[in-house]
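Dear Dr. H.,

I hope your travels went smoothly. While you were away I took the liberty of generating a structure for the chain from your last submission, since the lab meeting agenda had it listed for discussion. I wanted you to have the full record in hand beforehand rather than looking at slides cold. The sequence, exactly as received, is reproduced here:
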Amino acid sequence: MRNYIPANKRVDVTPGESVRIVRELRGLSQTQLSSLCGIPQTAISSIENGRVNLGVERAKTLAVALHCHPAVLVFPGWQVESAA
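The corresponding predicted structure, in token form, is as follows:
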């Protein structure tokens, strides 16, 4: 771990907000996303509104349905600086 590049936080976005943003960018409703991933619509709503933690397994499931990397959902707002 000698040659790592530290990540810097760029924006304040919660994991739930990240799920909502990516879902809306994909043009999906909560019900449509629920059908794609098998997570109940009420759970998706609770995640998006911060009442329920996203969790790694749910992030993986949602990421497959949303065609994104799970880190986009779990660590929103973080960006790694490129090595110079």
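Two observations you may find useful: The mean pLDDT is 87. DSSP finds five helices and two strands in the chain.

With kind regards,
E. W.
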